[in-house]
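Reopening closed ticket. The problem is back. First fold of the pair:
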Amino acid sequence: MKRFFYAISVIAAIAMASAGSTSACTGITLRTADGNVVMARTIEWSGSDMYSCYVVVPRGHVWKSMTPDGRLGCEFKARYGYVGLGVEQSEFVTEGINECGLSAGLFYFPDYGEYESLKEENLGSSVSDLQLVSYILSTCANVDDVRAALEQIHVFGIDPRASTVHWRFAEPSGRQIVLEIIDGKCVFYDNELGVLTNSPSFDWQLTNLNNYVNLIPGKVAKGSIEKMDLKSFGGGSGLLGLPGDVTPPSRFVRAAFYQCSAPVLDSAEKTVAQAFHILNNFDIPIGSQYAPGETPAPIPSATHWTVASDLSGKKIYYRTMHNCQIRCIDLSKIDFAKVKFTTGALDPIKEEVIHYLTF
């Protein structure tokens, strides 16, 4: 319980400080030539080196939802085994995939969401926002199950000081939805685009894409003004006007363009590698979000880790700010009926691996 209160205080501090430090996420979706789906995203926090962990959850594992005052909310048992990546402690999974290939992820959503209040009469059916990913991966096999599950539970904030969040859920068929809780009510969006960042709301982000209807991949054709011939300085001139800052609306536009202009590859593994390359563009250098005179946190990057999930292959890949080597957990090699609950640090050793060539 002591660790629980420590964890929620850290999460709250992260959210409360987001105005002065980066607290961001960027998500994309890629497909292979034969229709396999790869979900990929980043998670950022420039304030400190958050503890990041993996968790392997067997079928039958029992979770208990935490509340701000230490009481227990909804108790739920894992119908499906899953692997997740979390922050601060194993309950707080922010991205994961279960044995059915259902993907679930949490993204910060400050200032625009509003949960319902935690009520005594709903305590047994209430799940904290930071544990909803665990709840969904434990109990749902597809997007329809997710919608049905949200009709049976109440979602509340683990700490009233903390930012609200929103979520994306996807299944191997390619169906994907975004959940936002507005004025205490669940609002679902079909996410055919496959991109998600942070605030404002998802429907606003889609509308904002209309401001960039002029963008095209490649090079702009020659033009002229009066008798003066005009030509591009180089490749990529069709991208003039693509926003390059790290605000959520700008990242949404940039992610949508890079995702939709990416070539379709013939295997999931190649597509996973492509997703990591695309998301390189969203790594946020430490210090860029600090005001002049402020001292940046002594960490390598504001992007703590990047993750990609192959939904059909049931594999989850990740790399971190401490180690750029891509690592993989293959769910198909895990017997979720027998495996023990397991959790561990994403980086047991926080050190970049450098290979020296000798001649």
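Second fold of the pair, where the issue appears:
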Amino acid sequence: MEAEAEIRLELGDGLTKLLERSLKPEAETPATPRAKARIKAVGETLTIFIEAQDTTALRAAVNSYLRWVEGCLSALRGLRQL
């Protein structure tokens, strides 16, 4: 792999394990062989490790994971308002 990124998110409120379980299926079956990811939750920190064949694939994977995180958090905010 040519490019890699490590994203660390301090989540709090017990969200770390929930997001880890939500994102793991995406990491276990990547949409493309050009990038792969690992998800790890430790305490209140969620870490997403991404390795890609090139910077284009890395950018796409980073964007995808950040959007999935935002989608999960947005859904949870909506549920809390019910």
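Update: turned out to be a display glitch only; the data is intact. The first strand starts at residue 3 and ends at 10. The chain has a mean pLDDT of 94. Please close again.
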